[in-house]
Amino acid sequence: MAGPLREFEDLHVSVDDVIYMPGLEASAQKPHPFVYFISIHNDSPVAVTIRGRKWVVHEDGGEVSVVEGAGVVGQTPAINPGEHFSYNSYHVVARSARVSGSFFGETATAILEKSDRSIVFVVS
Known about the structure:
Number of strands: 9
CATH class: Mainly Beta
Helix content: under 10%
Number of domains: 1
CATH topology: Immunoglobulin-like
CATH architecture: Sandwich
Largest sheet: 6 strands, mixed
Mean pLDDT: 85
Low-confidence stretches: none
């Protein structure tokens, strides 16, 4: 990877849906599983490869956890100009939570960050 980290304005992330899925496996300490659907749109003139992500989960009651790692759902997708990559995953929480995060990637000439995407999990 080359160059300093910078935000990439032409990469757009949308949270397409969040669904409470009580039938999924979850521990007694975190009994509320949610499935979320995300799309990453590349509106730039260059290909972008997603190399990682970082989510910060703020649960009601003050618990904070960080989820980060290489790629997304085991992949490092290359997104060509005008295309998008969609995926779904899930997370379990003890109570309602707000999640914010960033994706990290690269083009042939720059290391990129797209930040401040949010997901809200509401436990009723």
